[in-house]
Amino acid sequence: MGFCTLDGLDLFTTPKQPVVWDLPRYLVLQLNLFSGQLYFSSFREYVEVCELLSLAWEKDRSGQAIAADGFILKGSSKSNFIDSPVKFLKVFLTKVRMNCEAIGKTHIGTVLDGGLLRPADFREPENG
Asked: pTM for the full model?
């Protein structure tokens, strides 16, 4: 048994939010990163975070220059960064958010170590 997801930002809202509330995905992704969330809920979320951080999420990126940490150096018109955010995020997540505990075996730890995830790395939602 785990905790309920807070991705909808609908826990204890004042005033009460409408039943259908369209929350921009980039806000959820940014809040999850800076709250110290270490796991992605789906392969889709993994791809979105990598694209937000300008990191490669697959091996073949059509000839783009990719640094050892996975940062896409050139060729992406959608890049949000000039320099790699990996070093900052590693320090932030390990030293500040996780009290110096290792994060290497988590989804985000794998990404920040320059590794790639596959769809098989994510649990399928349970039926029922």
From this structure: 0.80
